[in-house]
Design brief:
Length: about 400
């Protein structure tokens, strides 16, 4: 199939890679109910105690359901990312009008039900009411690992923290304008989202890692659908004042991971390189063709742990050696070979019992836990996203 770029070249027209994109990136007639106002849910990373990178995923479940261009594995994957939440609430994925994954630590579910019905389901699942906050009813899970805020507008899920429902309160404050929002304090994020515009799926990641382009400061994509077609805008933000390397982006689109798409067009808006394209069937692979976008869609923190064995391999000290801060109530140690020793931080499987120096009780770089173990023990560090059924293994150590 001829791509738009190939047709232009065949008739001697200059490459669109040298042309600024000044008009809207996406065609009329497609869906895309999420606009810039939806970003009001998104607080600045600093207010949430995160570092290095901030991932964002927004989606419209009803749009995914009604488009034949969306493969079942895409909808199933997104549904799995909030499966525990909808189980507790007695809802289905497509009962939700909007879903916002804010980093790896919080989720906002816009719904068409009532706050009272959601509250009844939470109480039936053992959640306890803890009070009210700015029009939201607050609940905590039986093990205090999850906080929930409920209103007729939305249901917010966040990790339990040592000083109350801090993360869900922060998200509510951002929506109300009482906390700084990401787009207001970070020009890179704001420029990316301005180019992406609205969409049925919006994915964004700040930080230049895992992108096959030099000097990228943020990467994102916005998808919009009609019944038979998926159209995407990819955005790559470069440093202020730099020239956008459209030739590099062009190669990425023609011979790299974006080469599977049709109707490809390459250009830039200011410091943001832009690729627009279409595809007849959106699959998991074509949804996230770049590692940075794949990481943003997943709810796994970008983090590194290291371990030091103690004397006679009767203990091990695990240290957060870099990356994202992780809510301490969602980080667990499991495995075989634990031994009883109450003088150490932890002597049995369970929630991280070591240091939590980060904001709102998060495990931050430099924090450690010393674990009592038998020689030959195996320990797994697992992270449990607030809305998912299963945990994610972050590291495995053998002593």
């Amino acid at each position: 199939m001829w791509r738009r770029r190939d047709v232009l070249r065949s008739v001697g027209v200059a490459s669109v890679a040298a042309t600024p994109l000044l008009a809207g990136c996406l065609d009329e007639g497609l869906s895309g109910v999420m606009g810039t106002n939806t970003l009001s849910w998104v607080p600045s990373p600093e207010t949430l105690g995160t570092i290095e990178q901030f991932n964002l995923l927004l989606m419209t479940p009803t749009a995914l359901k009604r488009s034949n261009a969306v493969a079942p594995d895409v909808q199933n994957g997104f549904a799995a990312s909030i499966a525990r939440a909808v189980d507790v609430l007695g809802m289905s994925f497509t009962d939700l009008s909007g879903v916002y994954r804010i980093g790896h630590f919080a989720a906002v579910l816009e719904h068409t039900s009532t706050a009272e019905r959601a509250a009844e389901k939470l109480r039936a699942a053992g959640f306890q009411a803890t009070g009210e906050y700015d029009g939201y009813s607050l609940y905590v899970s039986p093990d205090e690992s999850t906080h929930v805020a409920v209103s007729d507008e939305a249901i917010l899920f966040g990790p339990g923290v040592v000083d109350g429902a801090g993360i869900v309160e922060t998200v509510i404050d951002a929506k109300d304008g009482d906390r700084s929002r990401y787009r207001a304090v970070d020009d890179t994020f704001a420029d990316l989202m301005k180019v992406l515009g609205d969409g049925d799926i919006i994915v964004g990641q700040t930080g230049g890692g895992r992108v096959p382009l030099t000097n990228v400061q943020a990467t994102g994509a916005a998808w919009r659908f009609n019944e038979q077609l998926a159209k995407v805008t990819f955005g790559f933000v470069f440093p202020p004042g730099s020239n956008v390397p459209t030739d590099e982006i062009d190669r990425l689109a023609t011979a790299g991971p974006l080469s599977e798409y049709d109707g490809v067009d390459v250009g830039h808006r200011g410091r943001v390189g832009v690729v627009t394209a279409t595809i007849s069937t959106l699959t998991q692979d074509t949804l996230t063709p770049l590692p940075a976008l794949e990481r943003a869609v997943r709810t796994t923190p970008a983090v590194r742990f290291e371990v030091t064995d103690g004397p006679d391999k009767r203990a091990a000290t695990i240290v957060h050696a870099g990356g994202d801060a992780i809510p301490g109530t969602r980080l667990y140690l499991c495995g075989e070979g634990f031994r009883t020793d109450e003088s150490l931080d932890q002597d049995e499987p369970g929630r991280w019992a070591g240091e939590t120096s980060g904001s709102m009780g998060a495990v931050a770089p430099g924090d450690t836990v010393t674990v009592a173990l038998e020689a030959g023990a195996t320990v797994e560090l697992t992270y449990h996203p607030v809305c998912e059924r299963a945990g994610r293994t972050l590291a495995t150590f053998e002593v």
